[in-house]
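2024-03-11 09:14:02 INFO queue: dequeued item Bacteriophage CI repressor N-terminal domain-containing protein, len=228
2024-03-11 09:14:02 INFO validating residues
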Amino acid sequence: MRASELLSALSKKLGTTSQGELADVLGVSMQTVMNWKNRDEDLSPLQVASALAKSRTAAVRQAQLETIRPIVEFYGIDRCDTKFDAGYNLFDFSSHASLYARGLKDVLLNSCGIYIFYDSRGQALYVGKAREQSLWKEMNLAFNRKRDVQMITLVHHPDRNQEFKPGYEKLRQPRDTQLELCDLAFYFSAYGVDDGMIDDLEALMVRGFANNLLNVKMETFAHSRTDK
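2024-03-11 09:14:37 INFO prediction written
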């Protein structure tokens, strides 16, 4: 097979639209691609094998670069009411919000991947994934979701207008109180993740920090799910 024929077939199969793009996919320089294309001779089996090996190496390198893409880390939560008081949004993204906040919301709305919520000390509280819907939608759902494990002991104080009485006159007893993630989380991080790695990355984080997180479900890895 002539070099020009091989390059044409590879370009069509790989969906590249330029010599530079094809060179990147094959893991060679653009000059090498041009040299191959201009040759009026057949490629040797060794040259074809070398091109395929370089292409595989380039594909692995590209996959490593695109598997995890940091979007934002330890962003401060400033919750605000949703329409009709149906819960909270993580932060204000209205026309009054900063360009930074609105830009972040747009990226989250168009990304899938993994997110982490942290408490006021920056300790991880909850890890979640977004595959079938965007990070923005999934994170806000998780932010408002009730979970039985989110229980702490609190003293309940009246919120109606009444006279204050100190504890030595009226002692209020601490009691278990179920909280939502929106009451506990102060920061979040979000990462765009390649679709094929989202489940396994979530499983790694949930299993690796099982004693620190509020997650109840113990996620499994791909090979375990396949074996069933």
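2024-03-11 09:14:37 INFO annotate: The mean pLDDT is 86.
2024-03-11 09:14:38 INFO item closed
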